User: Fold this.
Amino acid sequence: MNLTEYVRRNRDAFQKELLEQSVIPLEQRCPIAKASLSITMVLYEHFEISKMDGQDPTENTTTAEEIKDAEILAKPLLLRWEDVHAASLNAFIRLWKEAGATIGDYRKIDDLSRLLIRTILGQSDRRATMDQVEEQLGSTTLAKVREWQLQDVSQIYEYAWGQDLR
Assistant:
């Protein structure tokens, strides 16, 4: 459904993308449908869809601390799911092209796009506009995402090994 909505909203851009993909070797073509499913899963995890039980997070909040916690739970970008999905899928395709990836590199690009989406959406507060999110997803370079990836790996090693690593 997400891919169908993406194609419906971005018909011209999608047709252009398919034409570009048709002239490059099969091994270098971006698997857009598979990428769309990956993006859907990232968004599903980021917005914690499985934890939602249909209740209003602001219900039964009385103290200022509870209200602040409820504001953190409010995720207005969730209401713009199709737009976030489209921007994220465009970012995946852009990273694929920028890396010069092949089918064998799919997992690497998937991991990088996952990190990009989680970082950008994680840094966005509830007042962030969709335009801001789209701009950040579209302008973050492959080099920057790889830098974030190396920082994450460094933090993991630091946590696991600490003094022994030093």
